[in-house]
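Troubleshooting: if your tokenizer reports a length mismatch, compare your output against this known-good record of 308 residues.
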Amino acid sequence: MERRLDEWHQLLRSICTSPAVRRKPSLQEVLRLADEPLAVEERLGLREQREPCKRLLHGLVALACGTLQHVKRCYIGGAFGRKTALNYCVEADLVIFLEDFQCSRSRRYQAQVFDGLEKLFYRGRVELHGESPSCLKIAAGQFVLLDLHMTGEAPEVVPAEEERRYYGAAELARVDEELLAFGSRHAEFVALVLLGKHWRALDARAQALSSYHLELLCKELIERSDLDTLRDLFWKFLKRLAYSEDRLWARNPNRFRCDLQISKNARGPLAAYAAETLRDYQRHIRQQNTSACPSCGHRFHPRSVRPL
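Known-good structure output:
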């Protein structure tokens, strides 16, 4: 176990200090690329970091599984699995399926994992970021954010409310597949999600909007909109956040979890940030603009471009 901990920490250290870990760009810098969704994916998405991160995640799952008995199988997904993780802040779900899983023992499973990984946390670079009855939240190197779940196979019949949350992780693979399939049908989806997540990461007022919630809002926007350019979709996304009168309700495709919406207290600051972005970056994302300065990304409305 000690040797495996050493190897894992060495891998984490090499990833965090690698030139492949990209700096966080300004929003203006990314918007200059918005006419080419693939360029946005290249700038914000995981590329050369993906394989090292995959080894890191598999290593942590192996370490966690070593602390438990009767492990049936594991799954690595979330934003990492859906290819919507930012290259400067990787989010992932690690799911451990247990034989004879019992909801009443959830805290005991978590205690076993935490005790087994105690040396991992004491070595630095790794912190317990939070917990709930069904999940341990782990931050590794201020670069990787992990939700570690212990669960059983999803029952055919949705259980009572007090047990339902413990099986939400069992549905993650199916939900990830659904969003991956949607992304394969809509080329602008991944770029829009990455742009939205980057915008979210730039201001604390947007942190109440979870990464997963943001992806569902982007999916809904594309389904309901006839807009097809990334700039116009991002403009519509910000308008939804700034001026919608609801709490950003989104249907959750995970049948064991509730639909999503943000709290009333968080709604105002988030709306203010979105409205500020629409105002401050109007020249970069103004809807229906078709001409742009190649050096700064300034958008020119067709009627403002005078013929020579």
